[in-house]
Write a structure and sequence with these properties.
Blueprint: H1 2-7, H2 11-23, H3 27-43, H4 45-65, H5 70-86, H6 88-98, H7 105-128, H8 131-145, H9 149-171, H10 181-196, H11 207-215, H12 236-252, H13 256-272, H14 278-284, H15 288-294, H16 298-319, H17 326-357, H18 361-367, E1 401-404, E2 411-413, E3 422-430, E4 437-446, E5 451-458, E6 465-470, E7 476-481, E8 500-504, E9 511-519, E10 531-539, E11 547-552, E12 555-561, E13 565-572, E14 577-581, E15 584-586, E16 589-590, E17 595-600, E18 603-611, H19 615-644
Antiparallel strand pairs: 1-2, 1-13, 3-4, 3-10, 4-9, 5-8, 5-10, 6-7, 6-9, 11-12, 12-18, 13-17, 14-15, 14-18, 16-17
Length: 647
């Protein structure tokens, strides 16, 4: 949650920029808004995307329904350019990475552009009643249909509803559509989605919806005693009270900023608390790129926004509160104070949990020794996936390979020479208290500095569970079975998968290692699991490997090639890498395994691989640095001017 917490410093700036632009349309508001959004993106991309989506909704409704003059749009364009300049160095690498993946920026543009144009055209048709906007919405629906049938059906249904609303408004002016454009716009889009739910909009199975439904009603209850549950991540009774009072205030005496903040709060509220049909529609229409970077726990990403909306809506509602009685104001303040006090008391559970699980400096240093660090943790959608991806600890010394020049899909030489081996059959011992916990014997002990490669020969058994290697001094790693990864060359039981894992000890004392299999599928007849696997053990050193890896940042390695061949490095292939072989620059190409590889001549070779970036990326860095420096200079100048003005 570290990156999420970083956004809390800048989300108020985003909300202030939105509120300021709703109260008075000026470029200073766009400076605040663009700067806040840029800082949120730099802190955490998923929350930055959600903050941008909320901003597009609020400012889009303002520009499409109220401030439609050219001056307002020109300022919005300037604010967008400022945001683009501040984040150029952040977003440009993503555009370069997308070229190496199966999707890419082109798909995102092809998906988002017709959706945005179609939504804007529907709102403009409601605002003006012109059929030209309706025609544009129909064209956008046709374009979206080829990228997403479900979203195309939703947009098409909304177009039909918008046409019906404007026709009815001309016959019955009492509908007052023009006076309530933000509310009518949201109502048309939501109703269009609800009408399409029986036809599968957008999909019947939505992981994010299942998460929200599974957490309810715990997400509205007091924090659990441990403070570790996903449902414990909530805005608390204090902000729920403030949000409710703010919604009541803007409903009784609506202001422009109150109405739009209220709509934003209601939408986020419906996405946080399951409302039959409505929550299904809202979570189902989240754009696919946003789902990709947010994962199924979308709720964790937008709950901070709901908290900020509650705070600002409370201030906006308080300023417009219709009851001016001192007793009423004192009562409301007391109610909000009691609720906030309760939330403060609940937050102490997180603090107590933190003290309970805190580790000593010695434990932390042991845990972060090289043999305990996972080289692979997750895969970004933009990065090309490598089939070597293993969900567990791997030795980086074994991640460099020599490939044949004629056929790079074949290894020219195995990483380890299996000559000094010994074979052991690991047997299982059942823990009477925990039947699924099988201890493997014999136990191992690694000498200081020793590296050991284990090659498993599995039997015909149900290997469903986790293979755990643990010991004192922070030694721990685990591998899921029957496959410790989603790709063909990750450790696993199937015949075509690699069967080796590495154990090594960088400490200055012997390291006992206990192997445990946490079995999820014991034999149905109740018989013992028996022998676990036949294991061949091979000690090795960095100097004995086919590729002697000298460092990772920058990547440096020595390798002897009997003939011209390729060196496949552990680095995922992305634009911007440069390499030298024996001091001479060598092109970096993509290996069949989506790794960066360089060609080696026959003989001894010293290879160095660095990420220097593409020329476009360095230009983006210069642009972002210039924009941030200019923004700082403008801020200092404004502060000096304000300080010099007599009060």
């Amino acid at each position: 949650m570290q990156m999420t917490f970083m956004t809390f410093a800048w989300l108020p700036v985003v909300m202030y920029g939105n509120a300021r632009l709703l109260q008075r349309e000026d470029f200073a508001g766009w400076i605040w808004l663009s700067t806040g959004l840029a800082l949120v993106w730099l802190s955490h991309a998923p929350i930055g995307a959600w903050a941008t989506l909320c901003t597009l909704g609020v400012q889009g409704l303002r520009l499409l329904t109220r401030d439609t003059q050219w001056t307002a749009w020109r300022r919005a364009g300037a604010g967008s350019l400022l945001f683009g300049g501040l984040t150029a160095f952040y977003f440009w690498p993503l555009a370069e990475l997308s070229q190496t993946s199966s999707g890419g920026t082109g798909y995102v543009i092809g998906y988002i552009l017709p959706l945005t144009v179609g939504l804007a055209a529907v709102i403009r048709h409601l605002a003006t009643g012109r059929r030209s906007w309706l025609g544009l919405a129909v064209l956008a629906t046709a374009g979206l249909w080829f990228m997403s049938r479900s979203h195309g059906r939703w947009l098409g249904t909304s177009v039909v509803l918008a046409a019906g609303v404007t026709t009815a408004d001309m016959r019955w002016p009492a509908w007052r559509v023009r006076e309530r454009l933000p509310e009518w716009s949201v109502a048309v889009l939501v109703l269009g989605g609800l009408l399409m739910l029986p036809f599968g909009l957008p999909v019947d199975e939505i992981p994010a919806l299942a998460v929200v439904q599974g957490l309810f009603p715990a997400s509205l209850q007091p924090v659990s005693g441990s403070g570790r549950g996903l449902a414990d991540i909530q805005i608390g009774y204090g902000l729920w009270t403030v949000l409710l009072l703010g919604l009541i205030a803007v409903a009784i005496r609506p202001t422009w900023e109150g109405r739009l903040f209220g709509l934003m709060g209601l939408v986020l509220l419906a996405m946080s608390v399951p409302v039959p049909g409505l929550t299904h529609f809202l979570l189902g229409t989240v754009p696919d790129p946003l789902v990709d970077i947010s994962s199924s726990t979308l709720w964790v990403r937008y709950i901070p926004l709901l908290a900020m909306v509650a705070v600002f809506l409370g201030f906006i509602g308080g300023a417009a509160w219709p009851v001016r009685s001192s007793r009423a104001m004192v009562g409301l303040a007391l109610l909000a104070g009691l609720a906030l006090g309760w939330s403060l008391r609940e937050s102490e559970k997180f603090v107590r949990h933190g003290y309970r699980v805190i580790n000593s400096a010695e434990e932390v240093s042991a845990f972060y020794r090289p043999e305990n660090i996972r080289l692979y943790s997750f895969i970004l959608r933009n990065l090309p996936a490598s089939p070597y991806m293993t969900n567990g600890v791997v030795d980086y010394l074994l991640e460099s390979r020599l490939l044949r020049a004629a056929d790079p899909t074949m290894e020219a030489r195995p990483p380890v020479d299996w000559t000094r081996t010994r074979e052991v059959t690991f047997t299982t011992k059942v823990d009477d208290r925990t039947p699924g916990r099988l201890s493997l014997e014999p136990k191992l002990t690694l000498a200081p500095g020793e590296r050991l490669l284990l090659r498993f020969e599995f039997f015909d058994k149900p290997y469903t569970g986790r293979l755990v290697c643990q010991g004192p001094n922070g030694f721990y790693r685990e591998y899921f079975l029957p496959a410790a990864g989603f790709f063909a060359k990750s450790f696993g039981v199937a015949p075509e998968r690699p069967k080796t894992i590495a154990l090594w000890n960088t400490s200055d004392r012997p390291q006992p290692v206990e192997l445990i299999f946490l079995c999820e599928e014991l034999p149905a007849d109740g018989s013992p699991f028996g022998d676990f696997a036949k294991v061949t053990m091979q000690p090795y050193t960095a100097e004995q490997l086919a590729v002697n890896t000298l460092g990772l940042i920058p990547y440096r390695a020595r390798a002897h090639a009997d003939e011209p061949m390729y060196l496949e490095t552990p680095r995922a292939f992305i634009p911007g890498y440069s390499a030298t072989v024996n001091g001479a620059y060598t092109p970096v190409t993509r290996s069949p395994n989506n790794r960066s590889m360089v060609k080696l001549p026959a003989g001894d070779n010293l290879v160095e691989l660095r990420y220097t970036g593409t020329p476009a990326l360095r230009l983006a860095f210069a642009l972002s640095a210039l924009c941030w420096c200019a923004l700082l200079a403008v801020g200092i100048q404004a502060w000096c001017r304000q300080a010099a003005t007599p009060t």
